[in-house]
Backbone:
């Protein structure tokens, strides 16, 4: 057991984690390893495990991929505390697509805050060229000030260095993972 994990267990901090597969392809060995390790750590800490399926990639979303998530979890013998019981329950009650109106309200509210959100049509490697927020095909990003730091162990980390201006609305106009 690592020292960090032992400190969490010993300090009685409530551990909450999640498995967050995407139904845009069949799961692979890396997903299985991640699920098992997450499950083991959360159960060892007496924590709560959520199944949170990220289905915002509408173009690649397939029912077969969604069903595969539940088959793999069942095959691995993993249980979770919160989340859908199967594909139909997910589609009726847990799909992020059900919450698009709420996500859009949050995005509009963020866009109204002066200087916080900007639109860009750039790729990850090209220079930032802001365009009007209403520009079709533009992604919205949150401006991360260079002065914001995240506390970690003993060393503060400048957030802008590790997570520069991140996308909150994708080019297709749908809320990004960070908002959902």
Residues:
């Amino acid at each position: 057991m690592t020292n960090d994990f032992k400190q969490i267990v010993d300090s009685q901090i409530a551990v909450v984690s999640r498995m967050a597969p995407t139904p845009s392809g069949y799961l692979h060995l890396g997903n299985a390893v991640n699920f098992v390790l997450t499950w083991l750590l959360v159960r060892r800490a007496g924590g709560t495990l959520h199944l949170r399926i990220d289905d915002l990639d509408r173009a690649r979303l397939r029912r077969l991929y969604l069903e595969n998530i539940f088959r793999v979890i069942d095959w691995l013998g993993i249980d979770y505390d919160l989340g859908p019981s199967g594909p139909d329950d997910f589609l009726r009650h847990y799909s992020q697509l059900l919450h698009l109106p709420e996500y859009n309200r949050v995005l509009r509210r963020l866009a109204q805050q002066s200087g916080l959100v900007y639109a860009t049509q750039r790729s990850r490697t090209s220079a930032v060229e802001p365009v009007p927020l209403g520009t079709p095909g533009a992604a919205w990003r949150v401006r991360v000030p260079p002065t914001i730091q995240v506390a970690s162990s003993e060393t503060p980390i400048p957030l802008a260095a590790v997570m520069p201006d991140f996308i909150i609305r994708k080019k297709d106009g749908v809320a990004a993972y960070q908002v959902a």
Notes: Residues 99-169 form one domain. The two ends are 32 Å apart (CA to CA). The mean pLDDT is 89. The first strand starts at residue 16 and ends at 19.
